[in-house]
Amino acid sequence: MSRTVFCQYLKKDAPGLDFQLYPGELGKRIFDNISKEAWALWQKKQTMLINEKKLNMMNMEHRQLLETEMQAFLFEGKDVEIEGYTPPSA
């Protein structure tokens, strides 16, 4: 059975994640407040960021940068700025 959360990103009730995908307090906050849909949107942004900035997940600074971007995207409604990326026009 899927659980419903009030998604802070979508600002509505939506199916929540099946389990905590990120460690620590932030992971718990995401699990409690972010829907599967919003997490999937973040995953796409994260992939673009990693590729764009050539981030290395073994590098602590790179992981912190991603975490900061993730919090801004999911909880503060800030879109991720990706240089040289133009969203497809509708």
Automatic annotation (TrEMBL):
This is Probable Fe(2+)-trafficking protein. Gene3D superfamilies: Fe(II) trafficking protein YggX (1.10.3880.10). It holds the Pfam family Iron_traffic. It comes from the Bacteria. It comes from Pseudobowmanella zhangzhouensis. Keywords: Iron. NCBIfam families: PRK05408.1 (NF003817). Belongs to the Fe(2+)-trafficking protein family. Could be a mediator in iron transactions between iron acquisition and iron-requiring processes, such as synthesis and/or repair of Fe-S clusters in biosynthetic enzymes.
